[in-house]
Predict the structure.
Amino acid sequence: MNNPDLPSFRRIVIKVGSSLLVEKSGGLKEPWLKALVDDIADLHGAGADILVVSSGAIAMGRDVLKLGKRVLELEEAQAAAAVGQIALARAWSESLAGHGITAAQILLTYGDTEERRRYLNARATIGMLLGHRAIPVINENDTVATQEIRYGDNDRLAARVGTMASADCVILLSDIDGLFTAPPQKDPKAEFVPIVPRITAAIEAMAGGAASELSRGGMMTKIEAGKIATSGGAVMLIANGTKLHPIRAVCEGARCTWFLSPSTPVTARKRWIGGTLEPSGTLTVDDGAASAMRAGKSLLPAGVRRVEGSFNRGDCVVVRGMDGGEIARGLVAYDAVDAVQIAGRSTRDIEAVLGYAGRKEIIHRDDLVMSGEGTS
Ligand code: GLU
């Protein structure tokens, strides 16, 4: 199989590691950032949506707080992140502004990507920003993330952001070219692996065995990120970011490792909705709504005749036609108590009925899978 072509992707997450962006002395590598942003602006200008996951907050902040080079306690790292994140966000925002691109800062904790309600909110915000052609610049919210429930590495965070944003490509810029059959520092016979069609036990073994706290951020963490990204329908790429213009280099054929995905973001998401969730309620819809949904439209409250079950916003519900037959499943945008109240009502009445302006759709079409679709 040939290498995928970078400009063919529609929505790309680019993860930048601390050592690429921050000097050992704690200063920003400005020429490097400027060159990367030139590459990003090229992809963005060609129409792709771009999300950046940028590390470097702790590396920049530890210098300002004069914490030296030692291993930091969690509280120290959190304080350093609080200081460094301001400078980091500013650097991105100013560099992107040089190309007329708006940057938006998003700081995520583990709960924001794993808890369904918060996940949906973060996803909606990212969708809105990308719709405005802004570039979200994302980092873990290290300042409040607690030890047990933090990513701690931006490789997996970038992959998770990729699935959350339905990205079709995740690029991890690293300090090595990609995956080798064995760690190349230890084994001179290690060979480069340009394409990984599927992450198998043999691939994990190449990365140096099972992950441990110590291997966080290393190749094993990148393989874990690969599992997240590829099962979410994105292709993942590990590329060397140490030179100027690393993305242009990949476009021009620099060696890198591609992790292919068996599906696309849409089919992966639909399979997840259609197959793996235990539905927690039922919406019965009229014939007009059923045919609108079959034509690819969202389900609006007006078409809902009956609401059953106790569910929360973000839960999977079954959609049935008036004859009781299942026609779809989807992630519902309202809690059951609110869904009951807005069922049959026009979208413009939602605010008056509920006291807040919720989403227009009760199930958005991106969150809807018609029966028989997306299960192959
Ligand atoms: N979130 C951390 C920071 O910004 C970096 C985590 C990582 O390097 O993967 O400093």
